[in-house]
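Justification of computing resources. Each target in the renewal requires a structure prediction run like the one illustrated here; the chain below, 82 residues long, is used simply to show the kind of job we budget for.
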Amino acid sequence: VLAWWYEPLSWRLADNTFYRVDFLVMLANGTVEVHEVKGRKGESFYAEEDAWLKIKIVAEQMPWPVVVVWPSKEGHWQERRL
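Resulting structure tokens:
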């Protein structure tokens, strides 16, 4: 990771509906990604239904890839790329 920014922007989805980016991450090769941090439930991440819907909509609209990350039982990060 070359650089990262915490909650750097909000994305308007509809009237009175916004998505706030958790982290904007710049990788060493210059690629920029949106990282959405979630908690773990079992072996996967957990997101409320409305939050998951927002993430999927943002993944279709954002100019950067969206990556959902969550902690594993072993203490490292798992990811799902949208």
